[in-house]
């Protein structure tokens, strides 16, 4: 495994994510922010945050596979959500869980979650970018 996630003693023990990502390997992969477009550039889940999160994660998985990796190789995920409020957390987690179920993986929460005013296209509610280390 090229990435080990830990919550070291002396830092808060947060169940949703780990504080430290230790990466080893020979190839760094930087996945550009993925939005809820399908392969034809059509927005999936217009107005539905959970559906858009799911599509973003599926797109990240596709990009990782093209680089010879998977979510096991992810050192850091950053998620940008339009008009973020904590009330949106259940929808975010639902989208992550749905993608994880489709991919057959353990759900991978973001290391960084940012609220933003807008994204590139008004219909886009979320964008997910990843950094991975692949042997």
Structure description:
With 135 residues, the chain is of the alpha+beta class. The chain has 2 helices and 6 strands, in the order βββαβαββ. The strands form 2 sheets. A 4-stranded mixed beta sheet has the order 3-6-4-5. The chain has a two-stranded antiparallel sheet with strand order 1-2. The model has no long low-confidence stretch (mean pLDDT 92).
Output the number of helix runs: 2
Largest sheet descriptor: 4 strands, mixed
What average pLDDT do the residues reach?
A: 92
Unreliable residue stretches: none
Order of helices and strands: EEEHEHEE
Helix content: 10-25%
- Beta strand %: 25-35%
Q: Provide the structure class.
A: alpha+beta
Q: Report how far the terminal alpha carbons are from each other.
A: 9 Å
Secondary structure tally: strands: 6
What strand line-up does the widest sheet have? 3-6-4-5
Question: Taking Cα atoms only, what radius of gyration do you get, to the nearest Å?
Answer: 15 Å
Q: Quick one: overall form?
A: globular
């Amino acid at each position: 495994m090229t990435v080990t996630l830990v919550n070291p003693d002396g830092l808060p023990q947060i169940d949703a994510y780990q504080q430290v990502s230790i990466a080893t390997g020979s190839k760094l992969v930087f996945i550009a922010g993925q939005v809820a477009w399908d392969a034809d550039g059509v927005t999936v889940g217009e107005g539905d945050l959970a559906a858009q999160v799911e599509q973003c994660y599926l797109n990240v998985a596709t990009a990782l596979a093209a680089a010879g990796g998977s979510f096991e190789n992810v050192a850091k995920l950053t998620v940008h959500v339009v008009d973020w409020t904590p009330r949106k957390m259940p929808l975010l987690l639902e989208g992550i869980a749905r993608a994880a179920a489709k991919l057959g993986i353990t759900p991978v929460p973001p290391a960084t979650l940012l609220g933003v005013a807008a994204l590139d296209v008004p219909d886009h509610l979320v964008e997910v970018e990843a950094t991975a280390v692949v042997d």
